[in-house]
Amino acid sequence: MRKSVVAPLAAVLLASGIACYAQQIELVQNPAGRQTYSLNGPWQIIVDPYEAGYYDFHMHPQAGGGLGANRVPAGKGDKLELTFLPNTPTLQVPGDWNTQKPEFLWYEGTIWYKRAFDYAKKPGRRLFLWFGAANYEAIVFLNGHKLGEHRGGFTPFQFEVTNLVQDANNAVIVKVDDQRHADGIPTAMTDWWNYGGLTRDVKLIDVPDAFIEDYFVQLEKGSANRVAGWVRVNGGQKRERVTVRIPEAGASASADTDENGVARFAFDAKLESWSPERPKLYDVRVEAASDSVQERIGFRTIAASGQKILLNGRPIFLRGVSVHGEAPFRAGRVFSEADARVLLTWAKELGCNFVRLAHYPHDEAMTRLADEMGLLVWSEIPVYWAVQWENPAAYANAGQQLTEMITRDHNRASVIFWSMANETPLGDARTKFIGSLASQARELDPTRLITAATLPHYSDPATITIEDPLGKYLDVLGCNEYIGWYDGPPTKPDTIAFKTIYDKPLVMSELGAEAPYGRHGDEDTAWTEEFQANVYRHQIAMLKRIPFLQGMTPWILMDFRCPRRPLAGIQDYYNRKGLLSDRGEKKQAYFILRDFYRSLMPQE
Ligand code: GCB
Description:
Blueprint: E1 35-38, E2 41-47, E3 90-93, E4 110-117, E5 125-131, E6 137-142, E7 145-151, E8 157-160, E9 170-177, E10 202-208, E11 211-219, E12 226-234, E13 241-246, E14 251-256, E15 262-268, E16 282-287, E17 292-297, E18 302-305, E19 308-311, E20 314-315, E21 318-323, H1 337-349, E22 354-357, H2 364-373, E23 376-380, H3 392-409, E24 415-422, H4 428-444, E25 449-454, E26 458-460, E27 463-466, E28 476-480, E29 497-500, E30 506-510, H5 529-543, E31 549-552, E32 560-561, E33 574-575, H6 588-600
Parallel strand pairs: 21-22, 21-31, 22-23, 23-24, 24-25, 25-28, 27-29, 28-30, 30-31
Antiparallel strand pairs: 1-10, 2-3, 2-4, 4-9, 5-8, 5-10, 6-7, 6-9, 11-12, 12-15, 13-14, 13-16, 16-17, 18-19, 19-20, 26-27, 32-33
């Protein structure tokens, strides 16, 4: 049995603590383009706050394997307690548990999931059990065998189950534990709801014995007409021939795999560039001897040149907004194209050409839809606030989540930035940690730009200077500033100038103010729509004066649930900085920003 995700092939953590390491994660690329069998739907669940299904009363692992062993009572005298019975309740997968039953809203801990299935595996095929995401730790069993574990709540993982699946009566059992930990990524302290469970799709992926595992098909860095990349075949012949085709462009190339199953290719193609205005996607076909896979891919270049950002060689201002993976209208974590479509349509209506998908990799539906709808994307790992910078295990986990994020989305034209972190405290260990992540990201994907959201620094009371030492490792600097909200009155932006020590572009990755929809007062009364709109007015005037500003993603598109926000009658455990409420109602600030974005839009 092969555990496909957790083991890095080449992980090198130097004695100094942390170093860049090349890590390869095996994930079947483009699950939507494969033969699959959905395991979505009702799963039986057992709530287990004391982890009694895993540990005995002295905290040793359960001798009989616990709930994962999938035992059933042997007869009427069997006193077995750790078992799923026919009357065990169910939850829907995908879906967080918090929003499915009122008693689970605040629950953090272990819930066991079980799903039975039949699957007639054909000879010459291999099977993978694939999870879109499980928050936070998953321990997975199939037919009583432990397949492996995965930590990190927002990225896909898989296990090969070829030799374990039987034609009938298979049982997948998963222990999902969303307890927060100081050494986790993210840590125990965040500003979003800790939605637990099997939050994204679960499926079996059925591929030939020798199959196309992963491929990277993008324009070569700096070129508008040369496609370059690689294809990795798993289980293939020595020197297997691989072909990549773009039929609509009449272009293709073939190459042979090396001893690692990797074929590298490059070819010229006359391609229409993908852009927010014209999000052109091409059918791309990847073929090997016994397998082929197809998907729609867009081609565009992205570069930072001095203080500018160039999309397809031309300077672009990123009219953005930050977005959480919070579902509109129904609370809970986003898991469907329908959820994604509502959020991204709202962003488009606001005049955006860019979204910051904060603060973790969102459901794949978001980036795929962004490709189709023409929205550029900032994609981020949850290295958020104060991580244990000196802990090699925390680094390894951050590196693993980074690799999984890049592996999943490295063919998406929409994704232009990989973000390493958000609002981390200054310090050498932190800079080294994030700097190493940046090197890792560049190694995995040399075509996109590296960024992080940093904190502002006042060099005098009227000047914020962009000078975080992390800037050295980034292509684009992000800065989160709340001038007018956490920092001074709404008029304070009028008094602030920005400077930078970097010849690099700046994106104002957060700004904003909080107001529940429909709460009114004068523009100096906090928690009102008028106050929020006032902050936006003064912010926009300030932002217009920053010559090296190349984009902005105000905080945030829609209100979202948050345990740190208790203020009765105003927040009620929601962060209300949304431009829209969670019911899609537009606040006054929405119109201020929309008008500003309209004024920036290229005249058609
Ligand atoms: C921030 C964080 C974001 C919070 C936001 C806020 O700086 O990056 O996660 O939700 O501020 O509302 O305070």
